[in-house]
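To illustrate this point, what follows is a protein record of this kind.

___
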Amino acid sequence: MPAGLGQGVILGIGHDICSITRIQNILETHADRFLSRICTEAEKAEASTRAHLATYVAGRFAAKEAVYKALNAADQTKMSWRNAEILTGHKGMPVLSLNGGCHDGLMSLVADGATPHLHLSLSHDGGLASAFVIVSSITGK
């Protein structure tokens, strides 16, 4: 770790893989219901601009599953799908933010005085979407 950043701790790691075809089949029969259950309003708005909706949604679905796995040491009883939001940021990089039960779960793992950090990588290939999440915290300067 570079000088001056303080002490870093990994709090959790999660990975998930999702079939894009499976998501496509769900979207063909239950698109509105599925998207309302899984996606935030901002994710639904972003999805509506995508040429490949199933690929976009499969990546978000995998990322949300990976979040739950990364937060497995926290109480997950109040976490829901829409408590994790994945939007497209600078240069197309996915940006993960947590709210509600997921945010509370994250904060229950972070030591006093530490700052939480969320790391997300998404990939799509061969009909699959994959997501890898690392939850960490940094203490000190």
Observations:
- The chain has one domain: 7-139.
- The beta strands are 7-19, 84-88, 94-98, 115-125, 128-139.
- The mean pLDDT is 94.
- The first helix runs from residue 20 to 38.
